[in-house]
Amino acid sequence: MTTVSVKIASVLAGGCMAALALSMPAFAAGGSDDGATMPVCKKGEMYDKKTQKCVKQHSANVTDENRADYAYALAKAKRYDEALAMLDTLQNPNTAEALNYRGYATRKLGRTDEGISYYLKSVQLDPGYAKVREYLGEAYVIKGQIDLAKDQLSTIKTICGTDCEEYRDLNEAIADPSKI
């Protein structure tokens, strides 16, 4: 959702929501992970969940989890290089989430094999992490390895069933690769 559409929706809703929307940064596209709905700040800044405002990126008191979620928000906003740079600031870049987000940004930059390598590291750390399984499956679809994508779909089904977003999204990508 862009800043303009947030403003318009809030003005239509009326009341103090309009004033709040005028000062809010744009939101990244939605997903189930925290970073997917986090506000995206101007270059050189990041959103601090604790203070709920944009701060300088190199602020020492922002947690790795916050930085990883913000990197994902940047990636969902198609700011892939900035997402990777944010991930480079993590004290511990070897978490399932951070590796997944690095894989996502890398894959979206067209480096699918490199993205897959990050996804596989993430899966090793947390085999039950459905979001990484979805993105790994999408990478396999991009490579034309539909059998491997379907394997990920089956695994997602055991993790969260067929009604979860990750299952629906990967199933749709397998049926229509142009949706990736």
Automatic annotation (TrEMBL):
UniProt keyword Signal present: yes
TPR repeat segments: 96-129
SUPFAM superfamilies referenced in this protein's UniProt entry, alphabetically: TPR-like
Gene3D superfamilies: Tetratricopeptide repeat domain
Signal peptide: 1-28
Descriptive protein name: Tetratricopeptide repeat protein
Source organism, top-level taxon: Bacteria
UniProt cross-references to SMART domains, sorted A to Z: TPR
Phylogenetic lineage: Bacteria, Pseudomonadati, Pseudomonadota, Alphaproteobacteria, Hyphomicrobiales
Keywords: Signal, TPR repeat
